Amino acid sequence: MWLIFKKEMLELLRDRKTLFFMVALPIVVFPLLFGGAMYFASQAVSDAQTKTLSYAIVGEQYAPDLVTQFKTVENLALEALPSDVVTEEQMKAAIKEGTLDFIIQIPDNYSADIETSGQIIFKIYLNDSELNSVQDRLSDIIDEVETTFQREAFARLGMNEDQQVTLLDPMVIEKVNVADKRESVGAMIGGMIPYILFLLCLQGAMLPAADIGAGEKERGTLETLLLSPVSRTDIVMGKFLTISTAGAVSALVTVLSMAIWGIVLSQGMAIDFVTEFMASIGIVDLMLVFLMLVPIVSMFAAILLSLSIYARSYKEAQGYMTPLVFVVIVPVILAALPGIELKGAWAWVPLTNVALAIKELIKGTMDYVQLFAIFGSSVIIAGALIGFCVYWFKQEKVLFR
């Protein structure tokens, strides 16, 4: 078995394409892709918030003081409304054509005397399907004017400040969060980490699995290997260990690479935040997270090797393996859904239970007794799949299809 493992690993390390996907891709390409996507997304949001928007006001004669305040808002350019734009439909058309970015309509009941004016409703015509911050830019001014009107109305009614506050907010919910920072952050990102780890393990194992099984068929080296004085069980286990190692190394290299790049490219509080969060997890929980990946990688390796052995060619093997990505995604997404906890039947659902366990370990709320059942059930499933793989490899009709 170890001889086969050594042979397969040497062949794997000699293959530049495999090394690229296992090492270069995680270290350089993945961080660049994720970092580039995040950079352009943040730039798009920043540009939308700072872009100068053109607008017009309808009914400015009702609130000249408010119009003056609107003019002080940065990155807003007030323009005269075209003379042919009068009706609501014409205003909508002007927005759709791009003549103006938005139009704000001030109602004729606008007045500081809110006891008699009734509710004042501003209409904003805009294309809300695009990324913009129109409402955010205007809400500060409108909220300030609203507060002033309220205070003046309360003063006329003879109310003091305490009575005003009570009337505006008669009931207040005060939240006391008993969760520490690790639990709060872990709840946000804990569901994403298993998703990334599982897919990385699967993707890292796919390429060597296709080459070790179907690739050997195409090259004609499988027959030579079968004639060697090595049992078929040892051959399967050697190939299985190679695929498992490739998947685990690919996931580990990618995670370490992204963590290092994140710290290097971050600044100030971001570094402190990452450092503080990572320090709060503890080495034992981190080791348990990666220990939980062992049976998962074993499951993937056994399934991939079985498919590769069955396939007639490298291309056919890749066709069989690609749908596995979707099979893996579903149970991991279930673990990330709110309300799904490591209790009851969920503790026995393959992949989902490990994803939930990793999430709890990151949060620091893991019941460690449950790890025995989760790890044990995962090991049993992985062992059954390895057993099937050995049986599959011993079938002549499978090897020589």
From TrEMBL:
The chain crosses the membrane at residues 20-41, 185-206, 240-265, 286-311, 317-337, 368-393. Residues 17-385 form the ABC-2 type transporter transmembrane domain. Gene3D superfamilies: abc type-2 transporter like domain. InterPro entries: ABC2_TM. It comes from the Bacteria. It is a multi-pass membrane protein. Keywords: Membrane, Transmembrane, Transmembrane helix. It is found in: Membrane. PANTHER family: ABC TRANSPORTER PERMEASE, ABC TRANSPORTER PERMEASE PROTEIN NATB. This is ABC transporter permease.
